[in-house]
Design a protein that fits this description.
Helix content: 10-25%
Number of strands: 19
Mean pLDDT: 78
CATH topology of the largest domain: Beta-Lactamase
Largest sheet: 6 strands, antiparallel
Radius of gyration: 29 Å
Oligomer: single chain
CATH architecture of the largest domain: 2-Layer Sandwich
Length: 434
């Protein structure tokens, strides 16, 4: 993976570039421009091109690479002044080493057309969503699990519950947002499990290796603060559970502040006879379709719910949602695969960077997702796969860096020569390009 060099190293390399007149290469579509520093590096860098054809785009990002003692380095500038063969720009913030791309990036050629489609199943559902992801597939199912038999799954859950908890309930949200249950709304909003090993203890403060994706005290307080005071307090301290009111309070209110919501909640659950409790979200892709609720009563002889119970419940949730998929529970929301287009920000012979604002595919554009690509150039159309290696998003668009896979050798050769205008195998474009 590319990593930035330290500040002192950056200053050293910039000085070497000037002192030794090391070639600095900008790979343009089908031709290269070789620059050299003509003034000592300072806040501004002054470059002169060996030969320059075409225009330099001012204030647009320009990627540069150079080689020093057998290693390839890269940095980016935004030209501010262009005069014939001279370019002036601010010094880069970073210089990168250990570049992990196979070929160098170039701007998207005007005569190359790229379309995408997403492999696998996609769904457009109205369930609440959260920043979690379950594919709806399960890589391994225990030998005694029968996901195609819902009744069998329920019997297995009942048998397991009999040994570790006093009761359970499976709630499905029926293709809509959860109702008035505070815990259901909390699980649906966060995609995390509400795990209370003991109502006599404080809320878990931090996640751990044994308790990941759980509602911590901070998450609980933040969610409590996000709902209205009346609805939160009314649920957490109903009139029959509320302590004696102070003068001026109305029924259903409590003298506790919202900052005490976590402690008040545990106190309320103890008052309802609950010793240990667990809500696990049932997740399908990034949709929260329901939850599994387990509890142990105060008078129960059973030991409190632990991390093993948490993971077993999660595993059952995965198998259960897979069974629902097998039984076509989500079929009405299935989205038929259709090609979509994105703005290609740059491309190389090994991958590309694109941006998409298509809401129908945004949820599928995640690291590891596989896309089908169709690249149409004069004289040849290339069909291959691409795997999303990096992804980020802003308020309007999702940006994805993809690595080509399954590219036939003859297609790779054509794409290389089409993008770079050079014979395939030119080492100037290999080993650490962008």
């Amino acid at each position: 993976m590319a990593v930035p060099v330290k500040r002192i190293e950056k200053e050293f390399f910039l000085k070497r570039l000037y002192d030794e007149r090391i070639p600095i290469v900008h790979h343009k579509s089908k031709n290269d421009v070789v620059f050299r520093l003509i003034k000592p590096p300072a806040e501004k860098l002054h470059f002169k091109a060996d030969s320059l054809s075409g225009r330099i785009r001012l204030h647009k990002k320009m990627d540069l690479v150079f080689e020093y003692q057998g290693q390839v380095f890269s940095f980016s500038i935004k030209p501010q002044i262009w005069n014939d063969d001279s370019v002036t720009a601010d010094a880069p913030l970073f210089i990168y080493k250990n570049l992990d791309r196979t070929f160098s990036r170039v701007l998207m050629p005007a005569n190359l057309d790229v379309s995408f489609s997403v492999y696998g199943d996609r769904y457009a559902l109205s369930y609440p969503t959260a920043a979690v992801w379950e594919s709806g597939e399960i890589e391994h199912i225990a030998a005694n699990a029968k996901p195609k038999n819902l009744q069998s799954l329920k019997e297995q859950l009942t048998a397991w519950i009999a040994g570790c908890a006093d009761g359970h309930q499976i709630t499905l949200f029926h293709n809509t947002h959860p109702g008035g249950g505070f815990e259901e709304r909390l699980v649906a909003a966060t995609g995390k499990a509400l795990f209370i090993p003991s109502t006599n203890d404080a809320f878990i403060e931090t996640e751990s290796e044994y308790a990941k994706n759980i509602v911590t005290a901070e998450v609980f307080r933040a969610f409590s603060d996000s709902v209205t005071r009346v609805s939160c307090v009314t649920h957490l301290a109903r009139a029959d559970d509320a302590p004696e009111r102070t003068p001026g309070q109305t029924p259903g209110q409590t003298p506790c502040r919202l900052g005490d919501a976590a402690a008040l909640y545990l106190e309320t659950r103890r008052g309802k006879g609950i010793a240990s409790e667990l809500w696990v979200p049932i997740i399908f892709y990034d949709y929260i379709i329901g939850c599994i609720h387990l509890w142990i009563k105060n008078e129960s002889a059973k030991k409190r719910l632990d991390h093993n119970a948490l993971e077993t419940a999660r595993q059952f949730a995965r198998i259960f949602v897979y069974s629902l998929k097998v039984h076509s529970y989500f079929e009405e929301g299935r989205v038929q695969p259709e090609p979509f287009y994105g703005e290609i920000l740059d491309i190389s012979a090994s991958g590309l960077l694109f941006a998409s604002s298509a809401p129908a595919v945004t949820s599928a554009l995640r690291p590891g997702a596989e896309l089908a690509l169709r690249l149409s150039a004069p004289g040849r159309t290339i069909c291959c796969s691409a795997v999303i290696a990096r992804q980020c998003a802003d308020e309007t668009r999702t940006y994805c860096g993809c690595a080509f896979s399954g590219l036939a050798p003859e297609d790779l050769r054509f794409l290389f020569e089409f993008l770079y205008g050079k014979t395939f195998g030119d080492t100037a474009l290999l080993a650490g390009g962008v």
